[in-house]
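Hey, resending since the last one bounced:
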Amino acid sequence: MTFYQFMMTFRDGNIKHDEKSKLANWMFSDHNFPKHSTDYEEISRYLETYSPFLNALSVFDEVWDQYELKLNLLH
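The structure tokens again:
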């Protein structure tokens, strides 16, 4: 499972306005986001360059921890 696939579980079509949904919706609409990546550094660098809102990197770090937990449960 890629990080993008994991994030799509937070996507809501702009109904909710929490930070995870906001980031997921942005990732969905950004055609250049590294959607096939599972690499923290690659995604982090991308967000550092193209951060869609002020605390997007801290939201990413929080969600990345959840992503790693989910991956560990799957293995």
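Helices lie at 3-7, 19-29, 40-50, 56-74.

Sorry for the duplicate.
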